Amino acid sequence: MPLALALSSTLMLAGCGLLPGEDEHRTVTVWMMQGSASPEFVERFTEDFEKEHEAIDLDIRVQEWTGIGTKVKKALKDTGGDAPDVIEVGNTQVAQYVDEGGLYNLTLESARDLGMDDWLPGLAEPGRYNGGQYGIPWYAANRVVIYNKDLFAEAGITRPPRTREEWIADTRKLNTRGNQGIYLAGQDWYTLAGFIWDEGGDLAKETKESSGDWRGTLHSAAALRGMAFYQRLQALGRGPRDADEEHPAQAGVFAGGDVAQIVAVPGAARAIEEKNPELKGKLGYFPIPGKRAGKPGAVFTGGSDLIVPERSDDHRGAVEVIEALAGKKWQTDLARTMNYVPNKAKLAPAVAGEAGVAAMAAGAANGRATPNSPRWASVEADNPIKDYMTEVLTGGDPATRAREASRKITRALDIEGL
């Protein structure tokens, strides 16, 4: 080939983003968390992806949740060899990893190819840090109301409540004849967070965008209104005021047959039915009601985001894997296989046939995440929100106790004080 023609061809390849060697066969290593996807899903995805991308082999490795934080931090510093190119992480963990360095900024890909404007906010917002999108939403899960259809029928309630006030009125009707209208533990702070968000408040706020300076805000008027609603609802049952929903496990309490409602992920129904098979076919679901009909209440959205290490030697291959996992085809497959909420509200019809998941998807459209501070885990480690809730439910002054809890949150989020 003449030299001029060879140089011309090289420039054309470079202009198209296809540099020499990019079409060579390579392996993209993906870390998925245990329980996030079934082996059958992984097998289907791998086979289809490798068929569509002949130059890429997938190496999907399942990781344990225990100790994963330390393992991810190490992986973000590694290069080559067994280092992962794509990592699944909890949606609220992204800010911590970005802050410590080592994540690839996916903002351009998010805007151009991944439809970021349609993502569920509870997954998208935690993946965003200092103006960049580092975590790509993969799947979501959130709380709904699980109810006993027989107890609703006995109380003359023919349809689920559509507003918070209807919910209170119905729960009051159900809280009779020895039954609990609702079993709501005193320290179920995720549920409280939803009520606070509905009122326009938050658990903590950044004083100025991207400043890293966070302040607890449980003492705001909006947050106090959320706590006041929690008090009203919690009083319509016999949930412990000094424990969370796992002590005792609320699914076991509900299985006793005299509890009309709990707030839980739909998967709790499986544990309820295992403990009391007589309740099979008698459980219903509805989204946590909001202040107005037609809009479910705010909920904490848990789930996973996908990240790419900055040191990955194949950003292009990693992005192609994420584009597939976060795209319509495999979002639909994963949601149906695992009973998850897809990463976009417009994909919710994929799970319309499953009553619990459909209720979860409706709530997820108004989902939120915990404050996007890299230090938030330190708040949860010695959770002052739980103590605050117990103090108020046992007679403490809400405003005074909220100010104390806000100060503790502020100290936990204070990076300067480290």
UniProtKB/TrEMBL annotation:
GO cellular component, one term: ATP-binding cassette (ABC) transporter complex, substrate-binding subunit-containing
One MF annotation (Gene Ontology) recorded for this entry: maltose binding
Keywords per UniProt: Signal, Transport
Coiled coil regions in record: none
Domain of life: Bacteria
SUPFAM superfamilies in the cross-refs: Periplasmic binding protein-like II (SSF53850)
Entry's family note: Belongs to the bacterial solute-binding protein 1 family.
Organism: Streptomyces alboniger
InterPro entries per UniProt: SBP (IPR006059)
Gene Ontology terms: biological process: maltodextrin transmembrane transport; maltose transport
Protein name in the entry: Extracellular solute-binding protein
Cited Pfam families: SBP_bac_1
Keyword field contains Signal: yes
